[in-house]
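Let us practice reading a record.
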Amino acid sequence: MKAILGMLGLVIVVAIGYFIYTARFSGEKGTSPPKQEIDLTAIRMDLLSLAQAERRYAATNGSYATLEQLRREGSVSFDGTGRRGYGYEIDIEDAQHFRITARPADPEKVDWPTLSIDETAQISTQ
C-alpha cells in the first residue's frame, strides 16, 4: 500500500512540474516574440529619454520643444525616423503639455503597438 501511495505521489509531483514547465517556457498565448520584446523595450527607453529631454528643455526655455529643436540642441541623437522600425512624433499643446508618439514605420511591424508618453512620464500602448 505504501508503494502505491508513494508512486501516486510521484506521478502527481511530476504532473505539477510538467504543467509549470510548459506554462513558463512554452511561449504562452498572448506573449510577444523575443525580438519584438527587445525592440519595444528600446522604444520605451527612447520615449523616456525624449520625455526627459522635453523636461530639461522646458526648464530652461519655458516651453516644450519639437523633435527638430531637441535634435538641434543636442538632447536627441536621432532624427525620429527609422529607429528600430519606429517613427517618433512630438505634439505640443499650448506649450504646457506634450505627447510623444512612437508608431511602427517598418512594413514588417504593422501589427506592432503604437506607444506614447506625455508630461506625466506614463507610457501608454495603443
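A brief commentary: Residues 34-61 form the longest helix (28 residues).
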